[in-house]
Amino acid sequence: MVFIFGVNFNEQKLVKKALQSFYALGPQTADRILAKYSIFPGAKIGTLPPKTLTALTAELSTMNIESDARRVLQDNIKRLRDMGTYRGRRHAMGLPVRGQRTRNQTQSARKLNKVERWG
Amino acid sequence: MSTPNCLRCLVRPSAGIPVSGPMSRTATTATPIAALPLTRTLTAPFSTTAASNAAPRRAFQPAASTKGHSRVGKKLQLGKFKKDRVAERGRVPQPGERKAYRKRITLSNDNAIPVPWLTDLAPADMTAAENTARVLALPEEVQDQLRAGEAFKTTQCWGMFRKPAVLVRKETVNLANQMQESADNRKTLRLVVTGDKVAGKSMMLLQAMAHAHLNNWIVINLPEAHEITTASTEYAPIPNTDPVQYMQPVYVLKLIHAIKRANEQVLSKTYTIQAHPELPQNIPSNTPLLALANVAKEADGAWPVFQALWNELTAQKANRPPILLCLDGLAHAMKVSDYRSPSFERIHSHDLALVRLFTDALGGGVQFPAGGAVLAATSRNNAPRAPSMELALAQREAEARRGAGAAGVEVPQKDPFFRGYDDRVEAVLRSVRVLRVAGVDKLEARALMEYWAASGMLRATVDEKTVTEKWTLAGSGVLGEMERAALLTMRI
């Protein structure tokens, strides 16, 4: 088991997939990180030297991922609500924001649209 | 909620007795709602279904001690049967086992008939024109060397015959003579083998390697260029290079091991001319090159060891055997690779140090001390488009034909409206020779088919008619197609 950015990964896991498991870090960014540290796309966590692992952790800690990215999202929703916009109110009420009907099928909106949105 | 009556047999399940069991037991105690004859027909007197299926289905049997009402329902039974339904999956293959099975090379078949007139290849056999259209066997030690150098491919039919043998073709004699001539003159032959699909390009490389091994050359084989350039092995920038080059430590370690195993005899008789204190293990001068190759134990230090080995092999004025450097699948080495630089740009294949080493040699940048050959083969199966390479090979071929006095040969020119050309590729292929491998003639086809028939793999009389038939079916004697037409029809 190997730690990257405080998360424990199996040695058999692809480095790219491990990077993508962080919130707000997608395939494009993962590819760029791999290229930056000259890691080939098929590399597994277990084959990385400790130096690269610490460098990866350092790189990730400078990026806007996980709780930082979530906070940005929540701030955006809060800003809308504080301004009193329609979108902000709909978020606060847990209702669809973009003009969808509310008669039925609003499960996604009820699940996701809240001020303290988690991802 | 279940119905009070069993809907299948219309029997009220009030008693703790099986409802659709043998008739002698049900008829007395259960209370049939419908007419009695209906319940009696539950078991067919004769059935063509399997015995287990034909047997009457036993309904849920409550324990004898349970009092009162027990529910007979489909859902309750399902839970009970779930336990029995564990599928037998068999043995799960170990990691890497399936790949090993896919990549295995079988070189002999004990069921094939040994061919009495088959002789082993001698060092000078491939250069002799009188051996054209003869099938000759690879000696045991050369088999081992070629196997170590990964010269055999899984797509070739080695596993059908008693021992591996090759057909000496006109092109083989031509190539072997060119190699021998350049070694005699201490020059380096630079040649690209090209031709149609399954025409025998890789086999031509194998024959060149066999010739080199028989004559105590040092053979370095890069079996597939795509393994190097499709971003499937580790890479790292080499420090202090400008423009930056990249090494592939894991692949290079594998390559060093292959070189070591394939050339053990020759390397143990060749000695270093300078000391190598920078390596993990200090190598003084006048050490066998085998010891130098043995230093590479881990991928970390493999590239410096390979570089030291290459520098020793190509050191001028040293006593070295001729060298043969081979690569199959040239198109992959002549394109932009799938690797990315730290600035996220695609790395050109020629910036990968191993490929650069080969292309330098192919382009004429390296002189081997005792001469030798740099051979590359194109592939028609797994090849990306490499317009510059295709154009350059066509140009070289046309120039050679024009040089031989053929009239009306036009050298193809670049398309002025096409942007995909690559200057670096053109520079490498500016002065190579091209050997085109086409179909065999009927004499060679006959020799090969006689060998197949003598091995018991072709169950037909080999006469002019059969040979012509197969030769024509194979598009004027394309060897792979002949195999498909005559040999592989038997494969199960």
TrEMBL record, chain A:
<keyword id="KW-0689">Ribosomal protein</keyword>
<keyword id="KW-0496">Mitochondrion</keyword>
<dbReference type="InterPro" id="IPR018269">
    <property type="entry name" value="Ribosomal_uS13_CS"/>
</dbReference>
<keyword id="KW-0687">Ribonucleoprotein</keyword>
<dbReference type="GO" id="GO:0003735">
    <property type="term" value="F:structural constituent of ribosome"/>
</dbReference>
<dbReference type="InterPro" id="IPR001892">
    <property type="entry name" value="Ribosomal_uS13"/>
</dbReference>
<dbReference type="Pfam" id="PF00416">
    <property type="entry name" value="Ribosomal_S13"/>
</dbReference>
<dbReference type="InterPro" id="IPR010979">
    <property type="entry name" value="Ribosomal_uS13-like_H2TH"/>
</dbReference>
<dbReference type="InterPro" id="IPR027437">
    <property type="entry name" value="Rbsml_uS13_C"/>
</dbReference>
<dbReference type="GO" id="GO:0015935">
    <property type="term" value="C:small ribosomal subunit"/>
</dbReference>
<protein>
    <recommendedName>
        <fullName>Small ribosomal subunit protein uS13m</fullName>
    </recommendedName>
</protein>
<comment type="similarity">
    <text>Belongs to the universal ribosomal protein uS13 family.</text>
</comment>
<comment type="function">
    <text>Component of the mitochondrial ribosome (mitoribosome), a dedicated translation machinery responsible for the synthesis of mitochondrial genome-encoded proteins, including at least some of the essential transmembrane subunits of the mitochondrial respiratory chain. The mitoribosomes are attached to the mitochondrial inner membrane and translation products are cotranslationally integrated into the membrane.</text>
</comment>
<feature type="region of interest" description="Disordered">
    <location>
        <begin position="91"/>
        <end position="119"/>
    </location>
</feature>
<dbReference type="GO" id="GO:0005739">
    <property type="term" value="C:mitochondrion"/>
</dbReference>
<dbReference type="GO" id="GO:0003723">
    <property type="term" value="F:RNA binding"/>
</dbReference>
<dbReference type="GO" id="GO:0006412">
    <property type="term" value="P:translation"/>
</dbReference>
From TrEMBL, chain B:
<dbReference type="GO" id="GO:0032543">
    <property type="term" value="P:mitochondrial translation"/>
</dbReference>
<comment type="similarity">
    <text>Belongs to the mitochondrion-specific ribosomal protein mS29 family.</text>
</comment>
<keyword id="KW-0496">Mitochondrion</keyword>
<protein>
    <recommendedName>
        <fullName>Small ribosomal subunit protein mS29</fullName>
    </recommendedName>
</protein>
<dbReference type="InterPro" id="IPR017082">
    <property type="entry name" value="Ribosomal_mS29_fun"/>
</dbReference>
<dbReference type="GO" id="GO:0005763">
    <property type="term" value="C:mitochondrial small ribosomal subunit"/>
</dbReference>
<keyword id="KW-0689">Ribosomal protein</keyword>
<keyword id="KW-0687">Ribonucleoprotein</keyword>
<feature type="region of interest" description="Disordered">
    <location>
        <begin position="49"/>
        <end position="72"/>
    </location>
</feature>
<dbReference type="InterPro" id="IPR019368">
    <property type="entry name" value="Ribosomal_mS29"/>
</dbReference>
<dbReference type="GO" id="GO:0003735">
    <property type="term" value="F:structural constituent of ribosome"/>
</dbReference>
<keyword id="KW-0809">Transit peptide</keyword>
<dbReference type="Pfam" id="PF10236">
    <property type="entry name" value="DAP3"/>
</dbReference>
